[in-house]
Amino acid sequence: MADFIDKTKDFATGAFNTAKLHAKIIAEETKIRELYYKLGREYYYDLENDVDDISGLEVLCEDIKQRLAKIATMKKKLESCEHLKTCASCGAVNPDKNQFCGKCGGRL
């Protein structure tokens, strides 16, 4: 009986940690979409107003780059937590048993 309880506890802890990691990935992806929007808006403003200083755009690009790297790290961690694999085409995380990506349909 104790073995069953321990296995159930481990499963619940793993599921909780996996869900938490998924939520962090979604939050980062949402922030990246906001940064892309801000980048486009600032680029348009700079273009319309003949602004030569693009340092603000570079800061946004660096922020996006760092967040993409953070997401990649989290996805690798997620893969090690459970039997998952990442789609080479779109980056979506899929169950290890899938032969095709659930997001884009690409072969895994």
Question: What is the structure about, briefly put?
Answer:
With 108 residues, the protein is mainly alpha-helical.
Average of per-residue pLDDT values: 87
Q: What class, by secondary structure content?
A: mainly alpha
Q: Note the beta-strand portion.
A: 5-15%
What is the helix fraction of residues, given as a range? 55-70%
Shape: elongated
pLDDT under 50 segments (min length 5)? none
Q: How would you describe this structure to a colleague?
A:
The chain is mainly alpha-helical and 108 residues long. It contains two helices and two strands. It has a two-stranded antiparallel ribbon with strand order 1-2. The mean pLDDT is 87.
Characteristic terms for this protein:
108 residues; two-stranded antiparallel ribbon; mainly alpha
Strands, helices and their partners?
Layout: H1 2-48, H2 55-81, E1 84-86, E2 93-95
Antiparallel strand pairs: 1-2
